[in-house]
Structures are given as structure tokens and as C-alpha cells.
Design brief:
Elements (H helix, E strand, L loop, with lengths): L27 H9 L3 H13 L3 H11 L5
């Protein structure tokens, strides 16, 4: 299926879960980076930048609550 979803394409990175390894605080940035295929350092940098404008901390806490831990 070009351009469409196919069940065989599903991988472990298609789920948004906080990993047990490679996390610094709660694993929120690692989860987002793994899910969207971005470098973890880049996602962490984005959260630090958003933290300076006041939105990063709140977003991190909300995502910490919403994203489940890896089984």
C-alpha cells in the first residue's frame, strides 16, 4: 500500500512509551524521540528551550503523566 498504513509496518517505535533505559528523568524526551525517529539530544534541547519560555516544564509534567511506562 503506497503511502498508506499496513499492519506489517508496525514496529516497537510505533508505540509511545517511556523506556526503562536511556532516560534522564522520567523518559518523556526519550519516548518522544524514539516514537518520531529524532535524536534524543535534540528533543531534550527543545524541552530546555521551551522551559525558558515557561511552557516546557508544564508540558513535560503532563506528558510524564500521560505516556505509559514500557512494560
Amino acid at each position: 500500500m503506497p503511502g498508506g498504513y499496513h499492519p506489517d509496518m508496525a514496529t516497537s517505535t510505533s508505540r509511545l512509551v517511556r523506556p526503562h533505559s536511556g532516560k534522564w528523568i522520567a523518559g518523556v524526551c526519550a519516548a518522544l524521540a524514539d516514537r518520531f525517529g529524532l535524536p534524543r539530544g535534540l528533543v531534550r534541547l527543545i524541552f530546555v528551550i521551551f522551559g525558558f519560555v515557561g511552557a516546557g516544564e508544564l508540558a513535560y509534567i503532563v506528558l510524564w503523566i500521560l505516556i505509559p511506562k514500557e512494560p
